[in-house]
Amino acid sequence: MQYEIRKWRQSDAKALAAALSNMNILNNLRDGLPYPYTETAALEYINAMLSADEHATFAFAVTADDEAIGSIGAFRQGNIHNRTAELGYYLAESYWGQGIMTHAVKELCRYIFENTDILRIFAEPFAYNIGSCRVLEKAGFQCEGTLKSNAFKNGKVLDMKMYALTRKVF
Which residue ranges does the record assign to the N-acetyltransferase domain (predicted)? Predict the structure, then answer.
């Protein structure tokens, strides 16, 4: 199989809905996504990403042989952080543990650093999400610390990790 990232297509809505209708994935993401995740919600997301400012939103489908199996995006921050982007991603559960997301993270970061003025890309996975932390570490991100009691999800107060990758500035 060939894995890559590419721009979203409206035809990805069915695969996106199938992947996100999984509590094992949703439990590792921020709140606000409906469950079950419908094709209508998926199409709304895809259309929003396709119409977003290309200098501020870098959103792609993660694909296996051109079929969407996940999502990856980085979002430029504002004000004094306007040269910083926050990274987020997920992958359909049947593809976990195969190195696919590490490849996607590296590909997206390379694209951003080669094509924008962004200096820093960060991610904040839940501290218990060892798989996501390993993805970031294998992609070259440095753990900058633990954000204690930084989130409230599913009735629990959770710690998060702060990971970052910075552009080499000379």
Answer: 3-165
